[in-house]
TrEMBL record:
<feature type="domain" description="Ribosomal eL28/Mak16">
    <location>
        <begin position="7"/>
        <end position="131"/>
    </location>
</feature>
<dbReference type="InterPro" id="IPR029004">
    <property type="entry name" value="Ribosomal_eL28/Mak16"/>
</dbReference>
<dbReference type="Pfam" id="PF01778">
    <property type="entry name" value="Ribosomal_L28e"/>
</dbReference>
<protein>
    <recommendedName>
        <fullName>Ribosomal eL28/Mak16 domain-containing protein</fullName>
    </recommendedName>
</protein>
Length: 149
């Protein structure tokens, strides 16, 4: 039997590997956190379903990683002393998306249609990553122009 989400939050909110304090504000470096702020709803490793969005190797490519936690039903016990608790499994699905922002947004909308809050956060993160990629590319182009002159 897995612990409730609120209990896990109480246990890890002040002490976990992803917790970072900068300028008096608590942040998280968890890949499945789409906001970066350490809150109960924002931490991905606590949630039953989470999404991580990362830049791909080229401009306009993204990788969407979906995490899903499911319960495995109990099997008939062979002996009387065997462990009868239901196990919790994690399934991670990685979707490399090479066709840009529109394809990535469609994937996110379909996968997380039932969780509107997570869907909004993931789409917002996708937009920010796309803008950052274009800014980085423009800065590199400007540096190349300056080096040629």
């Amino acid at each position: 039997m897995s612990a409730p989400q609120s209990l896990v939050w109480e246990l890890v909110k002040n002490n976990n590997a992803y917790r970072v304090v900068r300028n008096g504000k608590v942040w998280t470096t968890d890949a499945f956190s789409n906001t970066g702020v350490q809150t109960q709803s924002g931490l991905g490793f606590i949630q039953k379903q989470a999404v991580a969005i990362q830049n791909g190797s080229k401009q306009g490519q993204f990788q969407v990683r979906a995490l899903k936690r499911t319960r495995v039903p109990n099997k008939q016990a062979v002996s009387k002393n065997s462990n009868k608790l239901a196990k919790t499994n994690f399934f991670e699905e990685s979707l490399p998306i090479a066709h840009g922002v529109h394809t990535a947004s469609k994937v996110i909308r379909k996968k997380f249609a039932h969780r509107q809050g997570l869907q909004k956060q993931a789409l917002r993160k996708l937009v920010h990553l796309n803008k950052a990629g274009f800014r980085r590319q423009n800065a590199q182009n400007q540096e190349k122009k300056q080096q040629k002159q």
